[in-house]
Write a structure and sequence with these properties.
478 residues; two-stranded antiparallel ribbon; 19 helices; Hydantoin permease; 76% helix; mainly alpha
């Protein structure tokens, strides 16, 4: 950093930045959340809504965050505060990225647990463990793996150590170098798995599940899910892209780079389902999303593939998912490390170690509180408590991500003057359209969807509809 606190480290190349940005966007949300969410929320209808959210909400917010980051040259929180002061406004507008930065940390607390499960299953896949596995034995394998506490804790330590090493080495030597190696390998592996799945699996049923429009299933919850998925997938609303923007050189075209990142992320989301569901449907398995899909259904599907092909495909698949998880986790960790690095006397490696230690303690708490429910008659594991993961996923997608995006939109559109970001986007039609969307369309759309969609999700998740609850509380004459 220079004398006034601006970042002096920058991305080494445009390709390196694009790979790092795409790596931060492409993650587990593209794999187990998007395909299943699309299929269960209207199929093609959901995808249409999702694409509109990406184009008219996600892309303008991504441009805003990159522009704010490069303009300030600081971490997400410090950057927004410095921009507010430059406009003569209160620095309390830092709340716009405080919410996002805390959301990034909350996401990381469950992201790392699932990432460690992926690492454990990658090791199993490479050993051919899934061969001949049926649904019952697959569930017992999952329950037995995640309840092997000291083994999972060891893997968590190694996973966080890798995160600390990469993030602690800085932008060029850490984040960019990791992304330029992992992301090309990721795309090669993804294309390979998709080709196998669509040629050997049930392509027709997958296409119908994902793309057949079911408008009768669409409601406010669908819009909130699509909006939350767009935020979670692209990486806006968590302060991450503001942080990455601080490392951008002045010759980087922000609108064009934003469009490339959004396009790559959307491409992965759209084809990820074809890496999973053709194999699942061909094996006649349950397409239920989340841990059940990845860690129970997929091993059974791979176990049905005879010979070495099943082992190779399973290893490639879990390696692919682990790559996606790792590139996203180092990006999420960078949000906190970048801010801590600006604190006096804190080195980058020290900040990364501190964040990693806190994450390890939280992860250890979750690992040692996870117990499979055992059927007393058979002694078999029949359930696995994942309330913490479900709650954090629900709160981030349903509340914190849209709220963070709303605050960024209000700040960029109404607090910052037009001239503040003209230097980042240039004058012309792109700036005019972005300014209109970020001031008028984005905040209004997020506010409406956030209000009614969140009420819908509460009703769906907990069986409580808030207006009915208030009516009952206030009495029949309210």
């Amino acid at each position: 950093m220079d004398a006034i606190g601006r970042k002096t480290d920058t991305w080494g190349s445009r390709f390196g930045f694009i790979m790092a940005a795409v790596g931060s966007s492409v993650g587990l949300g593209n794999f187990w959340r998007f395909p299943y969410t699309a299929g269960e929320n209207g199929g093609g209808a959901f995808i249409v809504i999702y694409l509109l959210c990406v184009l008219f909400i996600g892309l303008p917010l991504l441009m805003a965050e990159y522009g704010m980051g490069r303009k300030s040259g600081k971490s997400a929180i410090e950057g927004v505060q410095s921009l507010a002061r430059a406009e003569g406004k209160t620095q309390y507008w830092g709340i716009a990225t405080w919410v996002g930065s805390l959301t990034a940390f909350f996401i990381l607390t469950f992201y790392m647990v699932i990432s460690v499960w992926l690492l454990a299953f990658l090791l199993q896949a490479a050993q051919g463990t899934f061969a001949g596995m049926d649904a019952a034995s697959s569930f017992q394998n999952f329950a037995g793996t995640v309840s092997n506490r000291f083994y999972i804790l060891t893997l968590l330590f190694l996973f966080l150590l890798a995160n600390i090493f990469v993030v602690g080495r800085g932008v060029k030597g850490g984040l960019e170098r990791a992304a330029t190696i992992l992301m090309p390998l990721f795309f090669i592996m993804l294309i390979g798995v998709v080709i196998y799945a669509v040629t050997q699996g049930d392509f027709a049923k997958t296409a119908a599940f994902l793309f057949e429009p079911k408008w009768e299933d669409v409601g406010f919850k669908t819009f909130l899910s699509a909006l939350g998925q767009a935020f979670f997938s692209i990486g806006v609303g968590v302060g991450l892209m503001v942080t990455y923007g601080a490392y951008l050189s002045k010759d980087t075209d922000i609108p064009r780079s934003s469009a490339i990142v959004v396009s790559a992320d959307t491409f992965v989301a759209l084809i990820a389902g074809f890496a999973i569901f053709p194999i699942v449907f061909a094996a006649g398995l349950n397409e239920a999303g989340g841990p059940g899909l990845f860690f129970i259904s997929m091993p059974v599907a791979f176990g049905d593939i005879t010979g070495i092909a099943g082992t190779i495909l399973a290893t490639t698949f879990f390696g692919l998912a682990l790559f996606a998880a790792f590139t996203s986790s180092i990006s999420l960790m960078e949000v906190g490390v970048s801010w801590l690095e600006e604190r006096q006397g804190v080195t980058r490696m020290g900040a990364a170690t501190g964040v990693g230690f806190v994450l390890f303690m939280i992860g250890a708490g979750y690992i040692f509180s996870t117990n499979p429910v055992i059927d007393p008659a058979t002694g078999a594991a029949v359930d696995l408590k994942t309330e913490y993961l479900d709650f954090v996923d629900f709160m981030t997608e349903g509340l914190l991500l849209p709220l963070g995006g709303l605050l960024v939109a209000v700040f960029a559109g109404w607090i910052l003057s037009r001239n503040m970001l003209t230097t980042e986007f240039g004058e012309g039609n792109v700036m005019n359209l972005w300014r209109f969307l970020i001031r008028w369309f984005v905040p209004a759309f997020i506010s409406i969807v956030l209000l009614f969609g969140f009420l819908d999700k509460i009703q769906d998740q907990y069986g409580v509809y808030l207006p009915d609850f208030l009516t009952a509380l206030l009495g029949p004459n309210s």
